[in-house]
Amino acid sequence: MFLAAALLTVLAGPSAAAPPREAAQAVRAAAGALCPDGAEAPELLETRLPGYLLSEVEETGPPEAWLRREIRLVNGAADLALQVTALRPGGVLRRLAIEARVLSSDRPLLLALTGGDCVLQLARALSYRGGTASELLLLAPDLTTVAGREPLDPPVPEAVPEPVPAAPPGAGAGGGVTVAHVDSGVNYLLPQIASRLARDAAGRSLGYDFWDLDPRPFDGDTSRSPFFPIRHGTEVASQLLAEAPAARLAPFRYPRPDMSRMSDVVAAAAEAGAAVVMLPLGSTKQADWLAFEAAARAHPRLLFVASAGNDGRDIDARDARGGGAGGRPLYPASLSLDNMIVVTSSDATGLPAPGSNWGAVSVDLLVPAEHRRVTGFDGQPAEGSGSSFAVPRVAALAARLKAAHPDWQAAELKRAIFARAVAPPVEGAVAVGWIPDPAD
Q1: Which of 117, 77, 119, 81 is nearest to 99 (CA)?
Q2: How many whole angstroms separate alpha carbon 361 and alpha carbon 354?
Q3: Per-residue pLDDT at 3
Q4: Whether the Cβ atoms of residue 277 and residue 302 lie closer than 8 Å to each other
Q5: Which residues contact 425 (CB under 8 A, 6 or more apart)?
Q6: Phi and psi angles of residue 262, each rounded to the nearest 5 degrees, phi first
Q7: Is 337:304 a contact under the CB 8 Å cutoff?
Q8: pLDDT score at 359
């Protein structure tokens, strides 16, 4: 009942937008200027790149043996800045990343990667609609030919309007239990995702992008790089939908620029009628999660399922300053909330998975979440591992329990889930136990 969605990455045709010409020319010129000795002596770049002034040089390691060097050059007349990252392990230049940005607004335009010989190997550019990056252009090494493109902020596919009966709290369109998913967003252009979105009576998606503050929570965490967004949410969501066939998904892109908006995320999940909220994310900054903590306490009927993280440490270990041998707390997992379950990944035998966090106080359950068959961002089969994938397995179990017992709220769901746990083969890893197969 949903309109067909376009495929993600498509070969570019003649109408494909090209990257800004000035940015491409500047990056090509920088690649030529950096070899053979431009990264070693950045002051030479001012003469080799007319119009550009050396603005900043930062490096890791002593000057004579640096491993990573950041070089910034600016051109006020062209309103361009070039940011060069040079990597020199073992004293030999191995890789260069050259990024062009608008100087006045610091808007990223184009990124190119080279080997130690400064020959362009891979490049990506951003196309903008208004003030938002709308498309990722995959460029050939000539920095002009667009070989492919990926949407970054597409509208949610519309649903064919049809009568929707009134649903009780916790149920979405068609009677499925609504599960809110706070993550990097989801690829709702995939029919298997679009067909499972929680929608209102008019067919509008109940999800929201709390990062960009628009109704398009498309999958992409650009905090590390706008040119190589992390695509996490689609894989996690696909695990939930596979194990909870009646669930409806309300995706919320997390508010990276302002984590105080997490209170709005919780309110939106409640307004969408969610019974369960997935949180396969976290950070070490407790201050980022104060708004969430207060909001979660204010909505005791919602069951939150949070990831313990994947740092390979005990998140209970702390001293008076919040640190301590073995690691630091991770939030929201280390918060004490009655309506939250914290999960981590185990192998098939119940042993904590390598790299996944644990904690005899903070972490409730071990769940097999290694080498899970999931759907990737591009719609193709993929494999997911880690505590992030323990979250949808327990959330799916909660959704199935909610469907069987519509009057149950967080306390009843949590009690029923804990009742399924058995003693793990290793003591002290978690507070409650191991669920060998949440899908059973």
Answers
A1: 81
A2: 19
A3: 32
A4: yes
A5: 349, 350, 351, 434
A6: -60, -25
A7: yes
A8: 96
pLDDT in the model for residue 256? 96
pLDDT at 168: 46
Distance CA 192, CA 361 (A): 38
Predicted confidence at residue 317, as pLDDT, reads 65
pTM: 0.89
Q: Assign residue 118 a region (left: φ > 0; alpha: ψ between -120 and 50; beta: otherwise).
A: left
Alpha carbon distances (Å) from 12 to 34, 150, 229, 288: 31, 10, 20, 40
Over 48-105, what HEC string results?
A: HCCCCEEEEEEEECCHHHCCEEEEEEEECCCCEEEEEEEECHHHCCCEEEEEEEECCC
Structure tokens at 107: 């808007």
pLDDT digits (tens, 9 = 90+) for 250-271: 999 999 999 999 999 999 999 9
Tokens matching residue 112: 């190119």
Structure tokens at 139: 């460029």
Alpha-carbon span 146 to 161, nearest angstrom = 37
Structural domains in the chain, CATH included, are 21-151 (no CATH), 173-434 (3.40.50.200)
β partners of residue 209? 214, 253
Q: Give the model's confidence band at 62: pLDDT under 50 very low, under 70 low, under 90 confident, else very high.
A: confident
Tell me, what's the pLDDT at 117? Answer: 96
Helices (DSSP H) in 299-439: which residue ranges?
387-404, 410-418
Q: Is the pLDDT of residue 320 over 50?
A: no
Per-residue model confidence as pLDDT tens digits over 188-236: 999 999 999 999 999 999 999 999 999 999 999 999 999 999 999 999 9
| 3-class secondary-structure state, position 278 | strand
| 385-411 pLDDT per residue, tens | 999 999 999 999 999 999 999 999 999
Q: Are 207 and 217 in contact (CB under 8 A)?
A: yes
- Identify the sign of the CA torsion 422, 423, 425, 431: positive
Check: CB of residue 279 under 8 Å from CB of residue 306: yes
Q: Please name which of 280, 276, 267, 279 lies closest in space to residue 246, comparing C-alpha atoms.
A: 276
Task: Give backbone dihedrals phi and psi of 282, rounded to 5 degrees, phi first.
Answer: 175, 170
CA nearest neighbour of 297 among 343, 332, 330? 332
